[in-house]
Design goal:
Shape: globular
Number of helices: 8
Largest sheet: 4 strands, antiparallel
Strand order of the largest sheet: 1-8-3-6
Order of helices and strands: HEEEEEEHEEHHHHHH
Length: 197
């Protein structure tokens, strides 16, 4: 029996990206699959590099990406993920046609349907329901970023518990050091928290 690839299992990561909450992305997914180009990203390939312009948005059919931020001291931080059945792009870079603040790299082999900005804008302008969906996507992305910012004021233990409550299978899909980086702590801190709880 072939071994299951955890990066392709949405069961583990259903609640990670809250921007999809209160949305029915089926129409958007269909747009990406019918108008987009299907592309394979091998493990460690970049969807976009930090400081480059994100020219396409993607719908992840399979695989997992992580969002990486290189700070001024050269340290790399994991700041987000995109899993199967989710969208992938630096949204601000994509819609404003400006330099990406993050790099987005494949954690495993990924299949993505890519769509250029012109196609997405045409969809947003196609009718009032599509316009409302575009507005809700932007609002949900803002809310998710705001919640993430406010969460930095909580202790590492509270942040870890909240993350595991929202997405209990994340630790089965991404390494401990990646979760630690996402939470802004060391892997040792996560190990101590796990022992306490």
């Amino acid at each position: 029996m072939p071994r299951r690839n955890p990066f392709n299992s949405i069961r583990f990561v259903e609640n990670f990206n809250a921007y999809l909450d209160n949305l029915n992305p089926a129409d958007l997914q269909k747009l990406f699959q019918t108008k987009g180009n299907r592309r394979l990203y091998k493990k460690k390939d970049f969807f976009v590099r930090q400081h480059a312009v994100s020219r396409v948005a993607g719908w992840v059919e399979s695989g997992t990406f992580h969002y990486l931020y290189h700070d001024a001291a050269g340290k790399v931080h994991v700041v987000g993920y995109a899993f199967a059945q989710e969208f992938v792009c630096d949204y601000a870079s994509f819609v404003q046609v400006c330099a990406s603040k993050v790099g987005i790299q494949a954690l495993a082999d990924c299949v993505v349907y890519e769509l250029p900005l012109a196609e997405l804008l045409a969809f947003w302008e196609s009718d009032s329901a599509a316009q409302q969906m575009g507005r809700r996507v932007a609002e949900n992305l803002y809310e998710a970023a705001y919640d993430r910012f406010l969460d930095t004021y909580n202790s590492p233990e509270i942040r870890y518990k909240k993350l595991m409550q929202r997405c209990p299978g994340l630790k089965e899909v991404v390494p401990l050091r990646s979760i630690a980086s996402y939470l802004g702590v060391t892997p040792e801190t996560i190990s101590h928290i796990r022992k306490r709880i």
